[in-house]
Amino acid sequence: MTNIPAGRFITVEGTEGAGKSTCIQHVERWATSRSISMLCTREPGGTPLAEQIRDILLETRTENVDSLAELLLVFAARAQHLNTLIRPNLEAGKWVLSDRFTDATYAYQGSGRGLNIQQISQLEGLVQGSFQPDLTLLLDLPVELGLERARQRSQPDRFELEQEMFFEKVRSGYRERAAAQPDRIKIVDASKSPEQVSQQVLDILDQWLAGIG
Ligand code: Z5A
Predict the structure, then answer these.
(1) CATH code of the domain made up of 9-212
(2) Could you identify the atom of ligand 1 that is nearest to the CA of residue 99?
C-alpha cells in the first residue's frame, strides 16, 4: 500500500470545453477512494474576494479591457486565493485541487494576449515565491472540438467570445509549458471518449502517487 503524503497541490488546465469539470470529478473520486482529504477550488476565484474579481474578469463589457489590467486582476485574485485558502489548507495537511492556476496565466495572458513572459514571471515570483503545483493535468484537444463542446453548454463569457486563433495560441502555450516541465505537467488526450479520458487521468494519478508515496 502506498503511503499518502500530506498537503499536495494538484491543478487541472486546458482550453475551452476540454472537460476540466469532468476531470475534477474523477480526481475527487480517486482521492476519496484513497481516504485523501481534498479541498476543491478554482481560479480565478476560490474565496469571496477572488470570486468578485472573477466576475469582473469574465463579464462581457463594451469597454476594451487592457491586457495588463487583466493580468494584474488575475494575480490579485491569486494572491488572495493562495494566501488565505490554498497555503493554509496545504499547511494543515489537506490536499488541494484547483481548476486552473498560473499555467493558465502563461497560456491565456502570455501566449493568447501576447503579454511579456518576463513580466508574468516577475508577478508569479512576487505572488507565489517558488510555490508551484505538485502535479498538473493538462487536458489537450483540438481547439475546434473544444469550442464545439463548449458551445453546447452555456452563454459565452468574455474569454469565450475570443476568435479561434486566440485559443490556438493558448493551446500552443500550454503544450510548450508541458514540454518544458514534463515531470509536473502531464498531458491528457481530451479528444477521446469520457471513459478513455477518465482512464488516462486515473493512470497518471496512480503512477504519480506511486512515485511520491
Ligand atoms: N483565465 C485566464 O485568462 N487566466 C488565468 O490565469 C486563469 C483563468 C486562472 C474562466 O476559466 C476563464 O478564466 C477561462 C480562462 C481565464 N476562460 N476561458 N475560456 P474557467 O475554467 O472557469 O472556464 P472555462 O475554460 O470556460 O471552463 P469550463 O467552462 O469549466 O470548461 P471545462 O470544464 O473544460 O469543460 P466541461 O464543462 O467539463 O466540458 C465541456 C462540455 O464537454 C460538457 O458538456 C461536457 O459534458 C462535455 N465533455 C466533457 N468531456 C467530454 C468527452 N471526453 N467527450 C465528449 N464530451 C465531453
Answers:
(1) 3.40.50.300
(2) 21
The string over 9-23, giving b where at least 16 C-beta atoms fall within 10 Å of a residue's C-beta and e elsewhere, is bbbbbbbbbbbbeeb
pTM above 0.90, yes or no: yes
In terms of C-beta density within 10 A (0-12 exposed, 13-18 middle, 19 or more buried), how is residue 64 classed? exposed
Percent of the chain with pLDDT over 90: 92
Distance 19 CA to ligand 1 centre (A): 6
How far is ligand 1, taken at its centre, from the CA of residue 160, in Å? 10
Q: For position 154, what pLDDT does the model report?
A: 75
Contacts of 59 (CB under 8 A, 6+ apart): 157, 158
